[in-house]
Amino acid sequence: MTTASEAVLFSTRPQPQFSRRNSNSNKVTKNQEEPQVEVPEANAECYELEQARDRIFRTHPFYLDYDYEVIPGDVTLIAQLSLDRLHMVEELASKWQGPLSLGLYLSDAEADQLVKFVLSSDTLKKRRNVGYHVVYKEGVIMP
Predict the structure, then answer these.
(1) What whole-number distance in Å separates Cα of residue 143 and Cα of residue 139?
(2) Does residue 8 register a pLDDT over 50?
(3) 53: nearest Cα among 125, 138, 123
(4) Is the model's pLDDT at 16 over the cut of 60?
(5) How many CA atoms within 13 Å lie on the side-chain side of 68?
(6) Which of 123, 127, 18 is nearest to 64 (CA)?
(7) Strands 17-21 and 28-29, bridge-based pairing
(8) Contact 92/100 with Cβ under 8 angstroms?
(9) How far is Cα 21 from Cα 39, in angstroms, rounded to an integer?
């Protein structure tokens, strides 16, 4: 039987991280229990939105290979997107040769599609200065 620490040794990618931003401060806390909240009738319409604010999202920074040395004066282009906008990344990467940092809101199956898309793209598979950071879907509200 493989233990959790042994399983990490066999992984080729960094393990997903879990974090939550406390709405009362700028501190990020890890692995806290979700508080049980009673929903008042007046706020019932906003309940799902308020719950999403405090939700812990499974994240996977640097989902694909990333290798870049910082050059003073460099500018990193950042963007957030979901699978329906992924086709735009190839054109963006062909026009922007500097580093890219992409936050992608994806399901597990869509994360597999991301890998296939990047590996099938002549432009993207050559680039190592593109950071793909996956936030896994949970619920219907995008973080």
Answers:
(1) 10
(2) no
(3) 138
(4) no
(5) 21
(6) 127
(7) antiparallel
(8) yes
(9) 21
